[in-house]
Design goal:
This protein has nine helices and 16 strands. It is of the alpha+beta class. The longest helix has 21 residues. The radius of gyration is 26 Å and the shape is elongated. The N and C termini lie far apart (69 Å). The relative contact order is 0.19.
């Protein structure tokens, strides 16, 4: 019996870079979820991220990165060196959780995962940022044939208090960074959506914390006391008037009073009251001007009521505005469009603050927002709330952009 000849043709299908990135994310999906949930269950407050740092260092070493300690900090860096000359990129994450007791329920039902540490939770989504840093390092190591130069993965201590940015900048100042990329999840953006701002992106912040000092006495004879509560009330009112008349309307500064404490009994006039709050601004000089205005108004108004004012250490600029480099913002938008074509949406600058501002002192920097909102599943509560929850699918998108931008930035990079 005679058989016909069979021909087998080998067909080589070359995957595009975008396909490779998306495939790698799918292959790492289990690790993405496992990493995020471990971090979410084990949050630590600012400057106490000892176990978090230990876990992340181990992960970096397993990937094959060179871990470098940051003196006096729980923060550290991990270096991916391709061995080929080129640019140096930083990819930054924050480490800390918040002193917020987590509600096991979001806006619609029971959460998939909840903090195991009483009184501490990742209510700002830093667990998702750390997951992006670790998994992007893992995938970029596998895709190192696509890039030249170096990547420093930056694990910053205590973003919420700003305690970690100074030591990290000292550590990085001689590393020859050409750019630093950072991201923040957003419960105001649906999963798969991004906002990328050219120029001012996050507000700067000044803290307010001052005592109004009077003279205590019996509530029956207020004339024999000097009531700091009366002075405090007039200070708040005077500040409202000063804001309308003494600051540049084209350089807005917000004033948020969060705490007024004073007194303990109805028939006792206390001798001291305390006020706490914050200022937010996008123009640093105007922010400094507003802080001095608060001090001046508080001092003069207190004196008019026979009191004095003592400003505490928090009354200072605690964060400068995050100003995105416009050229980098355009590059990231191009990377995003090539990966997720219709993902970019228009978004205003945000009045919250971030220690990421510090990296712009070293090199051009870019800070983007990726969506984790899923209103149907109750994952839409605001940041810093007990019911905060995120849709883990949003991490995939944030991860994809971090990888794609890193490759685009370093692919043909020459110093």
């Amino acid at each position: 019996m005679e058989y016909g000849t069979l021909f087998f043709w080998k067909i080589e299908v070359k995957m595009t870079l975008v396909d490779r990135i998306k495939t790698e994310i799918e292959l790492n999906k289990e690790d993405i979820i496992k990493t995020r949930r471990y971090l979410h269950e084990n949050p630590e407050v600012s400057s106490k991220e000892f176990e978090t740092s230990k876990y992340l260092k181990k992960r970096c070493e397993e990937i094959g990165l060179i871990v470098e300690e940051v003196p006096g900090s729980t923060g550290f860096t991990a270096l991916l060196d391709t061995g080929r000359p080129g640019k140096t990129l930083g990819i930054r994450t924050d480490l800390d959780g918040l002193a917020i007791e987590e509600d096991p329920y979001n806006l619609k039902g029971k959460k998939q995962v909840v903090s195991k540490n009483p009184g501490v939770s990742h209510a700002c989504g830093h667990d998702s940022h750390m997951t992006i840093a670790i998994i992007s390092a893992k995938i970029l190591k596998d895709l190192a044939d696509e890039i030249k130069g170096k990547i420093y993965f930056i694990f910053e201590e205590a973003e919420e208090t700003g305690a970690g940015i100074g030591p990290m900048l000292d550590h990085l100042k001689d590393k020859g960074l050409d750019a630093v990329y950072g991201n923040h999840q957003s419960p105001s953006l649906d999963v798969g959506k991004f906002s990328i701002t050219e120029g001012p992106a996050y507000a700067g912040c000044a803290g307010l914390d001052f005592d109004i000092i009077g003279k205590g006495g019996h509530g029956s004879r207020p004339d024999k006391a000097v009531n700091p509560l009366i002075a405090t009330a007039h200070i708040i009112t005077a500040l409202n008037s000063a804001w309308n008349n003494q600051l540049d309307l084209e350089k807005p500064v917000s004033l948020g009073i969060g705490v007024i404490n004073g007194g303990s009994a109805a028939n006792v006039i206390c001798d001291r009251a305390n006020v706490k709050g914050t200022l937010r601004f996008f123009d640093l000089d105007e922010g400094k001007k507003a802080l001095e205005l608060v001090k001046n108004v508080a001092d003069l108004t207190a004196k008019a009521h026979g009191c004095s004012v003592a400003f505490n250490d928090y009354s200072k600029i605690v964060a400068e505005p995050v100003i995105n480099d416009e050229n980098l913002a355009k590059e990231v938008k191009k990377s995003l469009k090539s990966l997720y074509e219709d993902a970019l949406i228009a978004s205003p600058k945000l009045w919250i603050s971030e220690s990421f501002y510090g990296y712009s002192k070293l090199c051009p920097s870019i800070f983007i927002n990726f969506g984790t909102r899923n209103e149907a599943e109750g994952k839409a509560s605001d940041l810093h709330t007990a019911k905060f929850d995120l849709d883990e699918r949003g991490i995939d998108y944030g991860l994809g952009l971090a990888i794609k931008f890193a490759i685009d930035f370093l692919k043909e990079s020459d110093k």
